[in-house]
Amino acid sequence: MDATVGSLGEEALVARIVRGTGAMPRGVVLGPGDDAAVVACPDGRVVLTTDLLVEGRHFRRDWSGAGDIGHRSVAESLADVAAMGARPTSVVMGLGVPGDVEVAWVDEFLVAAVAECARGKAALVGGDVVASDQVIVCVTATGDLEGRAPVTRAGARVGDVVAVCGRLGWAAAGLAVLSRGFRSPRALVDAHRRPEPPYDAGVRAAKAGATALMDVSDGLLLDSGRMAAASGVTLALESSRLEIGEPVATAAAAYHVDPLVWVLGGGDDHALLATFPADVRLPKGFSSIGAVVAADGDPVVLVDGRVPEVESGYRHFS
Amino acid sequence: MDATVGSLGEEALVARIVRGTGAMPRGVVLGPGDDAAVVACPDGRVVLTTDLLVEGRHFRRDWSGAGDIGHRSVAESLADVAAMGARPTSVVMGLGVPGDVEVAWVDEFLVAAVAECARGKAALVGGDVVASDQVIVCVTATGDLEGRAPVTRAGARVGDVVAVCGRLGWAAAGLAVLSRGFRSPRALVDAHRRPEPPYDAGVRAAKAGATALMDVSDGLLLDSGRMAAASGVTLALESSRLEIGEPVATAAAAYHVDPLVWVLGGGDDHALLATFPADVRLPKGFSSIGAVVAADGDPVVLVDGRVPEVESGYRHFS
């Protein structure tokens, strides 16, 4: 029988995880193993965000492997750092696992989490491991603004271009595939399991002069609605400008679903949504999907001039 | 019927929590409500620590109220910041609650969490709220070293004085009281429910020249064993120097328990354990409990010259 985390015990498991985090890059003053880590903040300010993922709600262990969950939980928080126009620097992680989970599961989780941290150029500098009924992952990420102002979701101005960088609808299509009992198309399933947010695009957007920036985690409609509300403007999107990925279109046709349901309503791809002054040349990876217009009454999101009927993104507690 | 978080929904709950965090102090560049917060790090480095607390493992909702859980989860992380010799600056929090939990529970949790942040002079700057089967709290805290080196657990040197600041055994005695079905003595039950780590003592220890510093969260024996191992020394404690609080002594007598079982083995009071050069005048609140001696073989903790038989602190997964 394979060893479980229960049989290994906390002390040995923590030691194993600390070994698995590997060598610390420059910028980490003190890595894992003490009461707290110490990370350099050359800018004099630190960007700080936390995300809590819970089994059965954000992922299922029969649909996502340990590596998928490790990857995805890190990706969500690093995307939030990028969404401020900052560069990710470090990650600390709270991990809850049932005692009967195999040590190999934790190993696979950790390898993928560390790899995704590395893709974001952030170091995993600390954490906490506890026993729990469900698998729980809480990832807190830090970032560095490199002297720039943070780009909030509240800065969109009338006349700006609305642009997006990254995939829309792929993760939702992948979840729909899994929900129907299938494991392919693989590209969609992988998009759900291992989203790859365009971390560098956050810094590019900030440098290009983005007026507002945010991470699309709950669906384009819901999140652009949040940007509209925070900025006090209306975002007028054009559906013809929304890229519908080829596998998304194929799956939608097979399931007799309007692909826009996934593209507008689906979350978890962690594309970046931004607004730029109209005279700015959009940075690499961004494409225009609409314009910022004055709110006529409450700030809303329009698609092709109308308030869309598509069911919008994921909501908890519902 | 009172409103539940399920009936309120995520968006309204988050808005309610953001309102509840109140005005942000100076040092917070950007508070709750965006993809991430931004906090000043005047020192150019940030101290970072995370703690995950899970219902049924770290607390029981029938033994601890919402306010107790909010207070305690913040206290654990701020104590870790203090244990580096740093001043707490900010907190972000992941909160998982079952949908049938009342909104009033979350309100009470938040008020106490914000109050304990304020006691530590830290601001609650962000978080994430999700639905979960168990109540889950993951608190990440940041701190500022004010130009000092972090004080790790690895710096204890032969000849140093071992000292402690804060209570030992109170929370364990309180847990024993609750386990036996009682709700008093109130001082002990409160010590379990709402530990009050001496945050300022961490900075005082660092300024006084502490060579090693750590938070006693899993019991004096277990944690001083970790300091001994990290420093490659043996810690020789004297039981006669360990303060046994009056209610701890009374409860021990009533339950026919050796109070040292709680004082040496009990965690969760979050006292600070430190070592200082012998010629240092101990800072306010610290009292000597022993000396650092050369390790004769593996580094260990001795009590009155012997390896103690007392069962040592709490371990997860066991």
Give the percentage of residues in beta strands of chain A: 15-25%
Separation of the first and last Cα atoms of chain A: 40 Å
CATH class bucket of the largest domain in chain A: Alpha Beta
Number of helices of chain A: 10
- What fraction, in percent, of the residue positions of chain A are helical? 25-40%
Spans of chain A with pLDDT under 50 lasting ≥5 residues? none
Give the CATH architecture of the largest domain in chain A.
Answer: Alpha-Beta Complex
- CATH homologous superfamily of the largest domain in chain A, by name? PurM-like C-terminal domain
- Rg for CA atoms of chain A: 20 Å
Give, in order, the helices and strands of chain A.
HHEEEHEHEEEHHHEHEHHEEE
Oligomer: homodimer
Q: Reading side by side through the largest sheet of chain A, how are the strands ordered?
A: 8-10-7-11-9-12
Secondary structure layout:
The structure is a homodimer of 318-residue chains.
Chain A: H1 5-8, H2 10-20, E1 28-30, E2 37-40, E3 45-54, H3 66-82, E4 87-97, H4 103-119, E5 123-131, E6 136-144, E7 161-165, H5 170-179, H6 186-193, H7 199-208, E8 212-216, H8 220-231, E9 234-237, H9 246-255, H10 259-265, E10 271-276, E11 287-293, E12 301-303
Parallel strand pairs in A: 4-5, 9-12
Antiparallel strand pairs in A: 1-2, 3-6, 4-6, 7-10, 7-11, 8-10, 9-11
Helix pairs in contact in A: 2-4, 3-4, 3-7, 5-6
